[in-house]
Specification:
nuclease; RibonucZ/Hydroxyglut_hydro; Metallo-beta-lactamase, Chain A; alpha/beta; Rossmann fold; six-stranded mixed sheet; eight-stranded mixed sheet; RNA binding; RNA endonuclease activity; rRNA processing
Length: 631
């Protein structure tokens, strides 16, 4: 029994082993088959890749234009992780002059290139632009300048820097057309490679792709910019706000912005201009109602000044004027160019019969006139100041005129604004300023900034476009929305944030920075000492004395000649001029020149002597120039 059981057990074990062996053989066959299937699939996939690469190669070889716009659908090959360096060249701790540099390996992408209007004491200066010396030294790496909008704070520096960089410029059609107008206005003729960007375009480079998304701003065709890298997306909002009351050409692409957030944002550079303003912006439709009310109350002429690039405000003003059957005078080349461009692109509807010239003003009753003005570079305050000071031929401010300043001035223009307001009130004008309800701001307020942060959910956050108090407040808002404090970076101009995987470091003073002053066609050749001289000239004038020295005798020949400009009225100060002449004569007679090399030291002594004399008599310090000649 026991033997039978043992035999039975043995048979069962043998049977079980056979079954296991057979099962293993079947499994091995399946595995071999699976492997063969994978090999075949892999082979086919490789064939498809080779075919696709061949197609791409053929397409690229057939392209006549070197435009890097990629329309092919397909996955980009995974790139090696390259260090990313982000450096503000402008636009931080200041309003305007936006310019940000993103370096990825051996490629540089420039985001915006704006200018800033000069401060009041910058006498004779037309504009202030960022220092681009680092970009010039590395211009072979610069892949292009990518513009977010057509305001001079974002693209105004292009005419002054493009000749040095010689790189392509990317922007929406409206932005590029406005830039072309700006170049034409300045008389600058350069061969620039422009790329008209649409929001669905993708531009491919060695280390990154560049894509775009629509944003709401004071002009249509405004764009945010996304740089796709192997480490993640770098997003630059440009100047933006959220407003659902605007027409479709102004509306932000909320879906695309949210999609970027879902994909993951490595770093966000975002507009901070209104970070200190609570709540939401006034909707544009409400601002339009307030403009309508101001027009309704006006009994005589309405004179409006605004930024030439603020198409939203301009469209409200034009609509209000036409509703009241007022003829419109466009005052200033910048606003004329902007409106003509907007008309060409169907963003603004004004018939020629509704536009008049200065010469035609007298042909219409005052209650049928609207003057819409802006400065030469699109700034609003200077244009109104020139009218108030009667510097524009054919136009002067009359009592009862309604003056509407539909713009919020930048901080460096506020002094000029208050001076202008005083002049206007003295002239008897009724002044309507850009109150919160009259003029909808063009920049996102606190709740709108939170909305952008919540949609994009960035790992790193860099507040830009604002004074330090704005940047600090925006940093606090970012922390409230969940960005880690250690990943919030308030960068100074020239300071670089380097990101490499999970490691980051800040490199202070990594790039040369400073203000480059534009004086006519002179760029960067105006130093602080020149500005100081101009300020002295404007306040105290200039005092020039010239005399001749005998080459042989080393003595004075004749009498000194004295000329002044902006210092004193010569006829009323004849005694002072004569006393100055006598002082020069006495000094030269009592201190004979022994050697020609002493002449420079003598000039310095005479200058100091005259400075004391003039200050004692007038309490003024003119620039004193002493000239001599050898005869």
């Amino acid at each position: 029994m026991d033997n039978n059981n043992n035999i039975s057990i043995a048979k069962n074990l043998q049977s079980s082993k056979r079954k296991n062996t057979q099962a293993k053989q079947r499994n091995n066959k399946k595995i071999d088959k699976s492997k063969n299937t994978k090999v075949v699939a892999k082979k086919k996939a490789n064939e498809r890749v080779i075919t696709k690469q061949s197609e791409i190669k053929n397409i690229k070889s057939n392209k006549k234009d070197s435009n890097p716009l990629i329309n092919l659908k397909g996955n980009r090959s995974k790139k090696n992780i390259a260090k990313i360096r982000i450096t503000p060249l402008g636009g931080v701790e200041e309003v305007a002059k936006n310019m940000y540099m993103v370096e990825i390996a051996d490629e540089i992408f420039v985001l915006d290139a704006g200018l800033m209007f000069p401060e009041t004491e910058m006498i004779g200066i037309d504009a202030v632009i960022p220092d681009i010396s680092y970009l010039v030294r590395n211009k072979q790496k610069v892949k292009g300048i990518f513009l977010s909008n057509g305001h001079v704070s974002s693209m105004g520096a292009i005419p002054y820097i493009i000749d040095k960089l010689k790189c392509p410029v990317y922007g929406s059609k409206l932005t590029i057309d406005l830039l072309k107008n700006h170049l034409k206005h300045l008389g600058i003729k350069r061969r620039i490679k422009f790329y008209y960007v649409k929001e669905n375009n993708k531009y491919e480079f060695n280390n990154a792709n560049v894509t775009f998304f629509k944003t709401t701003y004071s002009m249509p065709d405004s764009l945010g910019i996304c740089i796709e890298t192997s480490q993640g997306n770098i997003v630059y909002t440009g100047e933006f706000k959220f407003d659902q009351s605007v027409s479709k050409e102004y509306k932000s692409d909320i879906v695309k912005i949210s999609t970027l957030g879902q994909k993951g944002v490595l770093a966000l550079l975002s507009d901070s201009s209104n970070a200190n303003v609570k709540g939401y912006n006034v909707p544009e439709n409400e601002a339009a109602e307030q403009i309508d009310n101001a027009f309704y109350k006006a009994n005589k002429r309405i004179i409006v000044t605004c930024y030439a690039s603020n198409f939203l405000t301009i469209s409200h003003i034009v609509k209000a004027a036409l509703t009241q059957n007022r003829k419109i005078l466009l005052l200033g080349e910048a606003i004329q160019n902007s409106i003509n461009t907007a008309r060409d692109m169907k963003y603004l509807n004004i018939e020629d019969e509704n536009l008049i010239s200065i010469e035609n003003l007298k042909d219409y009753p005052q209650n049928e006139i609207c003057i819409l003005s802006s400065g030469d570079q699109g700034e609003p305050i200077e244009a109104m100041k020139n009218m108030a000071e009667k510097k524009i031929k054919g136009i002067q401010i009359d009592e009862g005129d309604t003056i509407m300043i539909a713009a919020t001035p930048s901080p460096n223009m506020e002094v000029m604004l208050f001076q202008t307001l005083n002049l206007l009130v003295k002239l008897g004008a009724h002044v309507v300023t850009a109150s919160k309800r009259l003029h909808a701001a063009s920049h996102a307020t606190r709740e709108e900034l939170k909305m952008m942060l919540n949609m994009l959910m960035p790992k790193h956050f860099i507040p830009v476009q604002g004074e330090f108090r704005n940047l600090r407040k925006h940093a606090e808002i970012a922390e409230e929305t969940g960005v880690s404090k250690e990943n919030i970076h308030i960068l100074q101009k020239g300071t670089t944030l380097e990101i490499s995987g999970n490691k980051t470091k800040t490199i202070p003073n990594n790039v040369p920075i400073g203000n480059v002053l534009v004086d006519g066609r002179g760029i960067g050749d105006v130093e602080d000492s020149v500005l100081k001289d101009r300020k002295v000239l404007s306040n105290d004038g200039i005092f020039v004395t010239s005399y001749a020295i005998s080459r042989k005798e080393k003595t004075l020949v004749g009498r000194p000649c004295i000329q002044t400009k902006g210092f004193v009225y010569v006829k009323k100060s004849a005694e002072l001029i004569k006393e100055a002449e006598e002082k020069v004569i006495d000094y030269l007679e009592n201190n004979p020149i022994k050697n020609i090399r002493e002449c420079a030291a003598v000039k310095a002594e005479i200058r100091n002597m005259l400075a004391s004399l003039l200050y004692d008599n007038t309490k003024r310090k003119p620039i004193i120039i002493v000239n001599f000649s050898l005869v």
